[in-house]
Amino acid sequence: MKNVFKYLRFEDKRNGKIFIITIDRPPVNAINIELLNELNLFCDDIKKDEKTRVIIFTGTGNVFSAGADLKEREKMSEKEVEDYIVNIRTTFERISELPVPVICAINGIAAGGGFELTLSADFRIASERARVGLRETALAIIPGGGGTQRLSRLIGPSKAKWWIMTARLFSAEEALKDGVVNMVVNHKNLISESISIAEEISEKGPIAIKQAKIAVDRGIELPIEKALELETRCYKKTIPTQDRIEGLKAFKEKRKPDYKGI
Question: Helix or strand or coil: residue 240?
Answer without folding.
Answer: coil
